[in-house]
Amino acid sequence: MTAQTPPTPPFRDARLPFAKRIDDLLARLTLDERIAFLHQFAPAVERLGVAAFRTGQEALHGVAWMGPATVFPQAVGLGATWNDDLVRRVGEAVSTETRAMRARDDRVGLNVWSPTVNLLRHPLWGRNEEGYSEDPKLTSAIATAYTRGLRGDHPAYWRTAPVLKHWLAHNNETNRDTSSSSVRPRVLHEYDLRAFRETVEAGAVAGVMPAYNLVNGRPNHVSPYLREHLRTWSDQDLLVCSDAGAPSNLVDSEHYFDTHEEATAAAILAGVDSFTDHGTDSSKIVERVQGALVQGLLSEADIDEAVRRQLAIRFQLGEFDPRLDPYADITAAKDFDTPAHRALAQEAAEQAIVLLKNDGLLPLSKDARIAVVGLLADECKLDWYSGTLIHRSTPLEGLYERFGAERVDFAEGVDRVRLRTSYGTYLSVPAVGEAADEVRGAEGALDPALLAGRTDLPPLTADAAGTELALIDWGEGVLTLRAPDGRYLSVADDGYVRASADQPGGWVVQETFHLEPSESHENGHLLKHAGTGRYVSVAADGVKVAAENAEIFELEFAERGEDAVARAAASADVVLVVAGNDPHINGRETEDRTTLRLPAHQERLLRAARDANPNTALVLVSAYPYAVDPGDLHAVLWTAHGGQAAGTALARALAGDVSPAGRLPQTWYTADEDLPDLLDYDVIGGRQTYLYFEGTPLFPFGHGLSYTSFAYADLHIQQRAGALAVSFTVSNTGETAADEVAQLYTRAVDPSVPRPRRELAAYRRVHLAPGASAELTFELPLSAFEFWDVALDRPRLEPGAYEVLAGASSEDVRLRATVELDGEPGAPRPVRERGLNAADFDEQRNIVIVDRTKVSGDAVTPVDGETGELVFLDCEFGDGVTGITVEAAGEGVVELSLDGGPLIAELTLNGTKGPYDYTTLGAEITSVAAVHDVHLRLRGPLRLAHVGFSG
Question: How much is the pLDDT for 521?
Fold first, then answer.
């Protein structure tokens, strides 16, 4: 007799629909196995032949953290390309390399946590580099392109499964896990949700990651919007992955729940499916879920719903159908670091360059003698979400390659110093051999925050000669010190100071210091290590950081950076000052910037170059905008950190081999005074971003110049069912082949509520030879003209006149036409029948929105429990009302007036047990009829949820 082959279980049967296969597998898993799947690192189920799985692989602009990979421009640079097709191809390359790297290293995951679609509302946000734009239309278009590239084109199987970050209204690192973004309904629907919605509806998104912050008083990880909005936008089983450590924050830092069992249950019920917490250790999450089940806070059905969504992703990734997976044959040998990927990295870097100003200095003459100076001139910087460079090109290297080293002079502009101790000796860097040549993160790490500093090198000492160090002040008093061989001074876990780092980096940067004046020594300074908060001391066994015995140093300058810059600039035909930021210092994840200004050290270098040579151009290489004075500069360019081909791309643009055609994806403001408070998320009331900003920007949204000129003509608009058909012609009227980014904006002419000054509706990047023309056609759905009507709690198209504007930026409008659109007329709020939800205000002063309950709903409260005001316009009282009721919690007073007139009611709340213990108060009022504006003044730490009228 022969043994029979066991039947294929249905979950392995590729002939069945995924849904039935998931049902079968789910039924075969024990409860404990299903619970274990809720952690980021889901264990293998060997009895079923199911492999281990992890959610999460960073891939923002290349595969990150897992060692060498192709590095593309930062996300904000990809946004600056305004090129959907290019970004889709970048997504294809990144997902292909993800598959290729996984083929040789199973630590690489296929559930990629990218892209970031948080809108770049505020340029001081530390993670500005991760987003695409301040505009929801541009953000969603670029994100859709990237996710389509990541996903692949197969109808059933995905190359990688992208998760959007970070849900929702997340633009501050300051107190990011405890701060609440107050987001009024119009801003929620017209701005913050829109970027997510349009990307999800495009169909190439596997899920989202909630952000650390709270929105309207409620943590994003228990947000009702996940079910109320996100899951209604798609028929797919969207996966919701928590951010790292955020589930524990619900109790530990936010104190929103008393126990972790409550918090975990609430997150699962809200829609979180995978918990990223405690690294690879799943035991805490498993324990919390089991506890929630025992306490009756969760049911097995709740667990199954979350596990089902994770399994859906695994099936789509082809895990259970290796022979049918169209991407299974991707290998590192043939699909990694390919010539096509290298060419694409250069193309992306070239298309991301934005020419902000040009008085004819650029492109550079082929026989020009060039001085390239500045702290970023010979750097190819990476950020926290970069892979390790395989290829590297700095601006200096690119210019050497393009113009010849004999025509290029270089001065970095660092201050060259020796640090003299109180004993008369100097800090000295011991000589080391080849062992010093090590790149941080080259081996890859599931959590690079755990990478430790090197201890295999000797620590610094002090001797009579000392070592001349390169000192850079990155602003805010944050310094780096670099040894002559290029290694940065760093502090390892043992506390010793070594010249050991190839670049500043890490979750806690160990390569930055502060100089603090000594109280006991007139010219002395204490050297404080930023990472540990301790001071540098000199001991017999080496230089270390310690809690005591801080050494007093005097700085002896061998050369000031501006002197070296001035010498190089004086003998050149053209000076290129390359300035910007290090993505790990002063503006990064966990740290917002404090100013738009260029750091003082770099301002000194720029002044020295301009004073020595008027033919000076500023090249900004940065993750965010700066407020600079371009007045006496002949040219200004900006590019985000451009990845591995940044220097080659920049040199080609400067030489005119390609004409710059990047466009600004966010407004560049003139000064800090133009900015709202970092935590003010009301883009409408705060007049934020190009949509509402009423000042004069330094450079407007969509701005970017060219080496040629373009003309716009023949704007035609035709109304069709549900849409406007718009066309116009763009012509290259210059002598250089170049790309133009044609932009289409709309504007409500006479709106009844504040509407954007203009709003991006469509765009197209097109290449035109000299003398060539292209007719561009767009279809604008009428929904693009809607706004969120708080009185109706839904979108409404207001009838009336709308302008359609075509041009080269949000301020450079070349063509315009007005169309009359039919719509739904507005009507007064029927307050007698419905009352007023407090958060549905039209105007407010000193009010924030908070959570009505921990599960759902909104209320409002005065900032800091003081006094705030609400205005509700056009309220219809019918034949008359004689009573008012308020639903409120806390303690304080609610005052009612109409049309800015005298007080007609005052209701006093004497205090309730807690912020969620609402009570209803009532009062009689003199009969009110017809239509009025309702004004409410709130005094004291009360929460107002609803106002009703009767009688």
Answer: 80
Beta-bridge partner residues of 836: 947
In this prediction the pTM is 0.97
| The CA-based dihedral angle spanning residues 639, 643, 645, 648, taken in that order and rounded to the nearest 10 degrees | 30
Q: How buried is residue 409: exposed, middle or buried, by Cβ count under 10 Å (0-12/13-18/19+)?
A: middle
Using 50, 70 and 90 to split pLDDT, how confident is the model at 436?
low
Contacts 24+ apart (CB under 8 A), 230-234: 230/167, 230/196, 230/200, 230/271, 231/271, 233/197, 233/200, 233/201, 234/200, 234/201, 234/203, 234/205
Answer whether 165's CB lies under 8 Å from 210's CB. Answer: no
Find, among 226, 293, 235, 300, the residue nearest to 265 by Cα. Answer: 293
Active site amino acids: 243
Question: Which residue, among 175, 129, 172, has the nearest Cα to 583 in the 3D structure?
Answer: 129
**Which contacts of 799-802 are long-range, i.e. CB under 8 A and separated by 24 or more positions?**
799/823, 799/824, 799/825, 800/748, 800/749, 800/750, 800/751, 801/748, 801/749, 801/750, 802/746, 802/747, 802/748, 802/749
Write out the DSSP string of 619-687: EEE-SS--B---TT-SEEEEE---GGGHHHHHHHHHHTSS------SSPBPSSGGGS--TT---TTTTT
The helix/strand/coil state of 453 is: coil
Q: What residues contact residue 581 under an 8 Å CB cut-off, 6+ apart? A: 381, 474, 587, 622, 623, 624
- Say how far apart CA 181 and CA 167 lie, in whole Å: 12
Q: Which residues contact 539 (CB under 8 A, 6 or more apart)?
A: 546, 549
Contact indicator for 39, 307 with CB cutoff of 8 Å: no
Q: Which residues contact 415 (CB under 8 A, 6 or more apart)?
A: 470, 471, 472, 473, 557, 559, 560, 561, 601
Side chain identity, residue 470: A
Give me the amino acid identity at 810: S
What digits encode the pLDDT tens for the residues 674-724?
999 999 999 999 999 999 999 999 999 999 999 999 999 999 999 999 999
Backbone φ, ψ for residue 293 (5° rounding): -65, -45
CA distance 594 to 171: 14
Helices (H), 759-840: 831-834
Of 734, 670, 174, 76, give the one whose Cα is nearest residue 383: 76
Tell me, rounded to whole angstroms, the distance of Cα 251 from its chain centroid: 26
- In contact, 99 and 330? CB cutoff 8 Å: yes
Q: Please provide the DSSP assignment of 422-434 as one string.
A: TTS-EEEPPP--G
Q: Report the alpha-carbon distance of residue 126 to residue 44 in Å, rounded.
A: 38
Alpha carbon distance 124, 128 (integer Å): 7
**Element holding 246 (H helix, E strand):** helix 246-252
Are 349 and 395 within 8 A, CB to CB?
no
pLDDT(468) > 70: yes
How far apart, in whole angstroms, are the C-alpha atoms of residue 236 and residue 258?
34
For residues 837 and 853, give the distance between their C-alpha atoms in angstroms, rounded to a whole number. Answer: 14
| Angle (nearest 5°) at CA 253 between 212 and 676 | 50
> Which amino acid is residue 571, in one-letter code?
S
Looking at residue 584, its amino acid is H
Identity at 400, one-letter amino acid code: Y
pLDDT tens figures, 847-887: 999 999 999 999 999 999 999 999 999 999 999 999 999 99
User: What is the per-residue pLDDT for 3?
Assistant: 62
What residue has token string 């996100």?
230
Percent pLDDT > 90 in the chain is: 96
Tokens of 108: 């690489």
Mean of all residue pLDDT scores within the chain: 96
Q: What is the pLDDT of residue 807?
A: 98
pLDDT in tens, 806-854: 999 999 999 999 999 999 999 999 999 999 999 999 999 999 999 999 9
Q: Estimate the crossing angle of helix 136-151 against helix 193-201, to 10 degrees.
A: 40
Question: Under DSSP, is residue 2 helix (H, G, I), strand (E, B) or coil?
Answer: coil
Q: How far is CA 324 from CA 156, 328, 545, 830, in A?
A: 10, 8, 57, 58
Give the rounded percent of residues in the chain with a pLDDT score beyond 70.
99
Residue 424: half-sphere exposure toward Cβ, Cα within 13 Å: 0
